[in-house]
Amino acid sequence: QVQLVESGGGLVQAGGSLRLSCAASGRSFSSYIMNWYRQGPGKEREVVAVIRRSGGTDYADSVKGRFTISRDNAKNTVYLQMNSLKPEDTAIYYCNAVGTGPYSGNSYWGQGTQVTVSS
Question: Span 82-108, mean pLDDT?
Fold first, then answer.
């Protein structure tokens, strides 16, 4: 079982920055692909960024060049650095862990953290 706890959300003006953190409990954090999703008002949940076990990353087109995902396996933590924020980035941001290898089939979600970007 893996528990995920997000932090770092808040209210920021357009053009500002925030850094989200997702702390994971449990073992074998390095065996999980870590994702950040978001769900804006009246919108479906969408993937924002992915970081694999190897450290390889992918981003949604809407955040490329502005957001950076990283992980610290020693601290069991994944981060999302968000720069040049726009009002359309307003959403609840969720951390997601997807197991690989012996942990395949496991998927865990955090409770979400609110990010609000004012114009």
Answer: 96
